[in-house]
Amino acid sequence: MAAERRPTGFRLVGRYGLLAFVAFVTLFPIYTTLVAAFKPGDKVLVNPLVPDSFTLEPLMTAWSDGHLGRYLFNSFVVAAVVTIAQVVTSLLSGYAFAMLDFPGRHVLFALFLATLLVPIEATLVVNRRTVDTLGWLNTYQGLALPFLATAFGTFLVRQALLAVPGELRDAARIDGAGHLAFLRYVALPVIVPTVGALALFSFLSSWNQYLWPNLITTEESMNTVQSGLTLLRRSSLDEPNALMAGTVIAAVPIFAALLIFQRSLVRGLTSGAVKG
Amino acid sequence: MESRAFDRRRWRQLPVALGLLAPSAIILGAFIVYPIVKSVFLGTERCNASGTRCVEGGWDQYTDTFRSTEFQHALWVTAKFALITVPLGLALGIGLAVLAHKHLAGVSVFRAIFSSTVATSVAVASLMWLFLLQPSVGVLSNVGWIADAFPVVKQPGLLNDPDTALWSVGLSSVWANLGFTFIIITAGLQGIPDDVYEAAALDGAGGSRRFWAITLPLLGPSLLFVLIVLTSRAFQAYGEIDLLTEGGPRPDDSTTTITYLTYGRNSIMATDLGLQATTAVLLFVVLLGLSFLQLWSLGRRVHYGD
Amino acid sequence: MRRAALPALVVAASLLVAACGSGESAITAGQDDPADTDADNDAVATDDADASTPDSTPDDAGDETDGTSPTDSGDETDGGDETTASTPDTTPTEVSLDEYPACPTDALDGADGPVEITYWHGMTADNEEALQFVTEQYNASQDRVVVELQNQGGYLEVIDKYYQSGASGRPDLVMFPEYGFQQAIDSETIVPVEACVRDAGFDTAVIQPSAIQAYSTAGVQWGMPFNVSNPILYYNELIFEAAGLDPDQPPTTFDELRAMSQQIVDSGAASYGIALDTNIDSGGGWFIEQWFANAGELFVDNGNGREALPTEVLFDQATGVEIVTFLRDMVADGLAVNVGDNAGGSDNFLKMADAADPAAMTIGTSAGLGTVINVLGSGLVEGLTPDDVGVGGLPGPSAEQTAIVGGAANYVVAGDDPEVVAAAWDFLTYLISPEVQSEWAVRTGYLPIVDQAIELEPLATTYANDPRFRVAYTQLANSPNDLAHAGPQIGPHRQVRDETAAALAAIYNGADIESTLAAAAATSNALLQQYIALNG
Q1: Using a CB cutoff of 8 Å and minimum separation of 24, what contacts does B101-105 make?
Q2: Least CB–CB distance from A243: residue in B23, B127, B178
Q3: Is the pLDDT score of C38 beyond 50?
Q4: What whole-number distance in Å separates Cα of residue B191 and Cα of residue C90?
Q5: 3-state class (DSSP) for residue C117
Q6: Cβ atoms of residues A200 and A265 within 8 Å
Q7: Which of A20, A61, B53 minimizes the C-alpha distance to C48?
Q8: HSE-up of A40 (CA within 13 Å, CB side)?
């Protein structure tokens, strides 16, 4: 129960007032975006705070001319591929580090963790050339490839597996063979929450990639939502309502998804703070 | 200590282990280790625009670049950006989390609102703020009384004034990160057992004393996590700068951070593959230094990891 | 305490770092250290390049991987007779193109089906829609070529992405702005348009000679101009009338600009005579180059960079000091207002529309005329209708109003497939056909580069009804065909503009003119040397 006395009277009003004020400030950019996204072009600069007219035209423009449907699809494909791949590769490597004892295990694990120290921005110069050499500019492979594995996921899975009861781990040792089956049918069910968190985290990170798709996309149809918005911003500042409509379209899927996955979201985000 | 049988079994497990590690190792090797190693050597060269012809510049290209006016300026801008976004983001996150942690009716609505910006990607958040701040089509400059009271929003515009541009980008960044910060700290707050507060209340500790003596210390791991994430986001900020200011306003380049200097659309580094690699490696080194600083100054005080 | 520790450490580290700053630009990184051994400095990382190698021998003709720069051929032609030598068709002895990729313009005839080509451009907003319109018409009008437009978001993105891409990632046709000209040549990835012109027997005499000249060196035309613009003066006729000036007589020279600004300010008709800016693509760079041409002066040495790669910028010499002094005095005396960086190119126009502190005039690209008229037509600016805006030529140091070709040109990208090259050429010729140029000019405000276009609809009507659209065209047609008006040809062109823009901004803020320009020139010269070292 409440450790504090419930605030009453004046203090209660003050607290709600403060909450409401902060909520207003937080929502303000979202509000103005929504207002603009549903205004016709000649009204958008007049009374930008008041939704005094309504049209779906900006949404149509952004959807058709801005190709946002296509970009959403691309983002979804890439994020899904990256998520599945990260979960699989992390399960395999995390399992190896947690369940197997082999020479060089500590060195290898340290090497894995060391890759976390490298900011993604420091690798893109060369990665762009690599993907170009493979002929994979403007492809899903190119967009996803560098992110198919992550030491962070490996670490998460390993930590989760280390917490698995000793008897289960012994079973794995004795068995010796059938590691994949063991992983699939014994270990995985135990660490489902961790895997879910990892998947959500992977999906969001991939969805939010900004620099990489901007670097390797030269065909409009292969933009992700993020690089597509960049293109829209460069070419449509003279149609602010369409630009804002595009922003709304780009934001809606994640808003919706997060409403559904609210619980795992918290777990996914906090999973970075493992063993706090 | 290690018997021969045990040793043999370890060796026998090696092929299986390597097989399981291979997918991760190949990707990490090809797209993290190889690029950084390759960049280190590329960073000693100067190249023409298409990167087809490079001239060896020597290892001092790193020191020259590090000491150059462009890099020094970008480093300073990056540090300022971090100093704006990290403390502000942290303070707001704590404030909101504590505010919404009170047991009030309807507080879950406010929680949802405060978490909402976590759903915005950097592009979405930046475009929202662009539409707020842009001097000709932006909201602020088209609301009469705001434009009258603060002429700077219209002329030259908050994003175009060298004095306000970095703050404006910083605010949009703080806003975009607020949802994340709020969620983490709220989770941390919920992890603090109520009986701790009850005990403190029995001891007669007041609200602010409880906050400083109990809440903050017990939030330690959450705050540390938020701090690390916000700092690294500040040092790697790119999208918000690209969409809001393109590193400008020029010629001061008031918002050209190291990452933007490396990849930005107006950057002199981006036209020379060698110099770009030099800058990227220096970014790595700076962040590495920062990581060690974080470990050194914070990690030893909070038990973190196993 | 704990939370304060990190920021404090960051500050401390930053201060330490700042203390070891060299005060030098990264341009010279790894290049200028006297401690470097020569072997280190001159070692060439790739095997295909040697800066000191003269022209290649004819036997490695057409070999794209050959490292010798095509521009070297310019060294040997005589640059003294520039007015004739730089117009390809009148060159007495044709320059050999054997060492460049060929342009078999008849290869389309052998194609099995429609040839698809990709075209990268940087057109945005209304201009992008116009380009889409003419491209769709082209695709619908014939069945041999299908053009796929790829908008990269702007000129800068086109350039960046083009050079970051290897052969497989490049488009078949690419649009570079005028400041991308030298880089395009040195990239060794393009088919000189000259090869196509000769192969097809195309008559370039129909094209404005200055537009051809701008994209040619030593008798070789590299790119095909498409969207050509130049800076013009926009002014508020209502303010001119209020100040007692003739709204049909805008200033044509610097002196008149100053006198009229003085009259406008003195009469109280407006707060400022003119709004100036320091953007690299306008007041801080492009306009300065225009004013150099107008003064009949070269901006860089080696014949404005058209005889050989330039080694030295000339903007810090007498002409540059005069131009910048004029601008600085205008601002310092309150006759002009500096709107600063002017990113997006609208702040100077907004200053004209500013109700409280308006400026009577501003300078902008002619490509913006259509947008200005559209915006005013929508009633966005109270009390200013499209008809109230007058347009004049660019006032400059000389009594004649002249200009350099601005805008962009299209380049055929070298590739293995002759059909694709031929298809790209076919589309190029379509884009400069009188019909398309007429449509294009009306929809965008770019000026037509073929004279016939102005007699065709819709442009004929527009020019007849609204002479404002004709100003830029007349200005370019009046420009002499000399090296000054060919415009500077600089490898690191954009970076040099960066330097002039930064210098001008500093000077507006009170910095000393001569020393600031000298410092900017020194950095620019380092850039030029750097470019020669990597491309020469």
Answers
A1: B101/B186, B101/B189, B101/B190, B102/A4, B102/A7, B102/A15, B103/A2, B103/A4, B103/A6, B104/A7, B104/A12, B104/A15, B104/A16, B104/A19
A2: B127
A3: no
A4: 84
A5: strand
A6: yes
A7: B53
A8: 7
Q: Which of C437, C423, C364, C429 is nearest to C130 (CA)?
A: C437
The region, left, alpha or beta by phi > 0 then psi within -120 to 50, assigned to residue C30 is: left
**Domain A62-273 class, CATH top level:** mainly alpha
List of domains in chain C: 82-228+405-482 (3.40.190.10), 231-402+492-535 (3.40.190.10)
**Beta partners for C413?**
C190
Residues B119/A251, Cβ–Cβ less than 8 Å: yes
- For CA atoms B266, B271, B273, B279, the dihedral sign is negative
Contact residues, chain A, for C120 at CB < 8 Å: 218
**What CA–CA distances, in Å, run from A187 to A5, A100, A177, A181, A195?**
46, 13, 15, 9, 11
Residue C79's pLDDT is what? 38
Give me the residue label for tokens 């709600």: A16
Prediction ipTM score: 0.88
Per-residue pLDDT for A271 more than 70?
Answer: no
Backbone dihedral angles phi then psi of residue C338, each to the nearest 5 degrees: -95, 115
Residue C37 has pLDDT above 60, yes or no: no
Q: Residue C177: how many CA atoms within 13 Å on its side-chain side? A: 19
Q: Match domain B68-299 to its CATH number in 3.10.580.10, 3.40.30.10, 3.30.70.1450, 1.10.3720.10.
A: 1.10.3720.10
pTM above 0.90, yes or no: no
The yes-or-no verdict on residue B2 having pLDDT over 60 is: no
Mean pLDDT on A52-80: 89
Q: Which of A15, A78, A95, A121 to mutate to test the interface with B (most CBs of B within 10 A)?
A: A121
pLDDT tens digits, residue range A135-171? Answer: 899 999 999 999 999 999 999 999 888 887 767 666 6
Q: CA-to-CA distance for C175 and C121, rounded, in angstroms? A: 5
Geometric angle at alpha carbon A143, from A140 and A149, rounded to 5°: 110
Q: Which of residues 101-120 of C touch A (CB under 8 A)?
A: 118, 120
From CA C187, how far away is CA C65, in angstroms rounded? Answer: 11
Three-class DSSP category at A4: coil
Q: Where in chain B are the domains?
A: 4-56, 68-299
Pick from A34-38, A209-213, C82-86, C532-536: least confident: C82-86
Residue (of B258, B294, B259, B292) closest to B72 by Cα position: B258
What does the block give as tokens for C65?
């991987």
Q: Which chains touch A (3 or more CB pairs under 8 A)?
A: B, C
